[in-house]
Input
Amino acid sequence: MNANNRISMRAALGGIICALSLVCMFLSGVFPFAEYTCPALAGIVLIVLVLEFGRKTAWIAYGAVALLSLFITPNKESAMLFLVFLGYYPIAKSCFEQLKSRTAEWVLKFLLFNVSCAAGYAVLIFLFGMQELLSEMSMGFAWGIAVFWIAANGVFLIYDFALSRLVFIYQTVIRPKIRL
Output
């Protein structure tokens, strides 16, 4: 494939991936119960760009989707979750997994998750005045926020393993059947 075809392929696939991510983000407003699932799916789609064209292309697509989702996504919590973590984590994951130390890899992954989510929720609660998020997270009891945060870390661990499996499936099953 010559250089011009490769550039055209990158632009076309990037546009399709961005569109799919934006559809996922828009659906978070249609299905309010999917305010965590939709941004996660929108970020997962970016894995294809990481694997086919590298992280730089994926970062550009993430930036475009993050910016547009702030305007078109009716559910602002979903848009913030995509912006502060779920949108770029599949790209960052590929960087962390190149580290030689598995301990450092996991410490950095959990550190990124917790700092990003805390910052995102702080912006939603204190800057956008979405105080109702505190009552939702506390689930009606004193230690509710701590339980919510521990559960969120457990879900993040499952999410990370699921991403690894999806990458494996893409590389071994899907990629050999398509020609990019």
Notes: The domain at 3-177 is CATH 1.10.1760 (Arp2/3 complex 21 kDa subunit ARPC3). The chain has nine helices and no strands. The CA atoms of residues 5 and 144 lie 54 Å apart. The first helix runs from residue 3 to 30.
